[in-house]
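Appendix B, record 7
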Amino acid sequence: MPTDFRLPELGENITEADVVLVLVREGDTIAVDQPIATIETEKATVDVPSGVTGRITQIHIAAGQTVSPGAVIVTVDAAIGAEAAVSKLPAAPAAAVTATPPPLASPPAPAAEPSPPLAAPTPAPAAKPEPTEAVTVPASTPPAPAPATPAPPEGTAAAFAAPSVRTFSREIGVDIHAVQGSGPGGRIDIEDVKRHARELRATPVAGGIPPLPDFSQFGEVERQPLSRFRRTIARSTATTWSQIPLVTLFSTADSSAFEAIRRRYRDAASRAGGTLTDGVLLMKLVGAALKEFPQFNATLDLQREELILKQYVHIGLAVDTDRGLVVPVLRDVDKKTIVDLAADFRGISDRVKANALTLEEMRGASFTISSLETLGVSHFTPLVNWPEVAILGVGSNADLPSYEREELRVHKRIALSLSFDHRVIDGADGARFLRWLVNAIHEPAMLDIPEAAS
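Structure tokens (predicted):
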């Protein structure tokens, strides 16, 4: 009995992937969990395990092809033990695959437009030569196609404008032939071009993307295609910027107390295969803060007008790589000791460097920490990782002077930037969260950090 195996869901907001390798051939017999193909998504390169057992009768993908969740990968003859094979990955509905019908429906529309001109010449032969001349003479017809022509050459009567106006129009990326002139006889001046440019910005264009000027007129340019990684970052940041009313609060905290904790747990963390860093300690404090302020560990559901409060604390760590920004996730941060977290952090850092993260390791974050500490940046404005509602930016941890009991001392001070969705979190709530975190950094013992196994 033929059985189609489809590409499973690949993760949050992942709608397509590129096929890197096909690992099977037609006629091969496959089992459940056997790798079928290697694919590259915006976040990682992974193998797709089979969810069926049987002999492959047809392969529907090829290297270099782009596929979407729900697309058929292989068809197998599942006569041998097919009923017992259960996919470990959920299959997407087949309806998500059909993307071709809309283009097929469009050809009839253009076909309807040529028919009126064909109908007009029909009565002409039946008439005398006089009507024939009348058909070719009308002056109302030529002006209509003129604006629709893509780019009439300069100097034609299609656009009445001085050379300086035409130059200005090209420089700001405005088609001079689309501008309505306000001068005598429809003459176009610079103010008409500026007005048209303002209208273009105010009016959504196809795809919501405004046209760009031709930069090659100013000098040599080079075009580089965006990688799938960068296209994903562009989409996600655009979603955040357009959907989330963002507020950012800034503060600094004295991180001197972290040194005492590092000395106390350093050896235990090393035996567990980890390295105890300020980042690990801060992550533990953030996990405690999210339990204290649950609205920061939430997602806004506008369709149902509900706030989804997550009972788990999974923290994403925005990491800069040579391929772009990735966000691996450390799970159950609130339940683990700092020694456990140090080992988890070390392991996930090694996999980031080796480009060996799995999709599962980048899913399910409920809050994100983004650090620019090593790059010498202090405060900045991190963008919330939608559909989360808040993100903590960590800046430089530098020696700074401060007064203590009227005496000038130098302390390690870490820069903190908290961005949040103002629809869910008020400014005062953001300030309370940040103040609680600063106090916890000053006195981390207040958290009663569990003793690490010795």
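Remarks on this record: Confidence is low (pLDDT under 50) at residues 81-157. The domain at 2-101 is CATH 2.40.50.100 (OB fold (Dihydrolipoamide Acetyltransferase, E2P)).
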